[in-house]
Amino acid sequence: MTDTEAKRILEALLLVSDKPLLLEQARETIGADFQETDLRRALLEMAEEYAAANRGMRIVEVAEGFQLVTDPELYPYVTRLTHRVKTVRLSRPALETLAIIAYRQPLTRVEIEQVRGVDASGVLDTLLKFNLIKVTGRKEVVGRPLLYGTTREFLDHFGLKSLENLPTLEELKAMAGPVAPVPAGEPNEPVNESTNPQSAAQAD
Predict the structure, then answer these.
(1) What is the phi/psi pair of residue 68, to 5°?
(2) pLDDT in tens, 52-106
(3) Which pTM was predicted?
């Protein structure tokens, strides 16, 4: 298989994927002819080609993968078509809680409440519902409370390659746009402190 053929396949995968395409997924789909390093190089070349051609789409590296997105400059036009899609904007308490988790993860609900000074149960349920956080396990202390961390969807929503690219809190607030509700039956439904950690931690 040539590089050109691989790029055609990658373009199709990016088009149909509703989440960032991981290199491992791409390699498994295309086959053993290409290693992940080869596919990463091909995707970066494609990103440059899209940008140079000044097309309405861009290929970006985000959430540990690659995704085909619309050019940010065309956002006003895109929203005219998609304004009917119901989205929810994160409240200030939800955003503050999400920032605490992002910068200090993993941590428990009690630890979050110690930082914020208020009950965090409702906010955690909201963030779990939108799949922005997940249960990562239990802390090895008395009671073994649940530990929370961010998800790959969190990186995707804020356009981050990895947690190493976390912006300042003020920048994070500025980046927070509407969040599409998770359809019924999707993983990461709200959980309580008695939830089985093994099943809850698999939600991502």
Answers:
(1) -90, 120
(2) 999 999 999 998 899 999 998 988 888 777 655 455 677 888 888 998 999 999 9
(3) 0.55
Structure tokens at 99: 């920032």
Q: How far apart are CA 195 and CA 190, in angstroms?
A: 10
Could you tell me which residues come within 8 angstroms of residue 197 by beta carbon, excluding any fewer than 6 positions away? 135, 137, 138, 144, 146
Residue among 72, 74, 73, 44 at smallest CA distance from 59:
44
Main-chain phi, psi angles of 134, to 5 degrees: -145, 165
Structural fold of domain 88-200: Arc Repressor Mutant, subunit A (1.10.10)
CATH for 3-81 (3.30.499.10, 3.10.20.600, 3.40.50.150, 1.10.10.10): 1.10.10.10
Q: Which residue has the tokens 């000044």?
A: 54
Q: Which residues, other chains included, contact 75 with Cβ-Cβ below 8 Å and sequence gap of 6+?
A: none
Query: Residue 33: which residues within 8 A CB-CB, separation 6 or more?
Result: 1, 6
Q: What is the CA radius of gyration of the chain?
A: 19
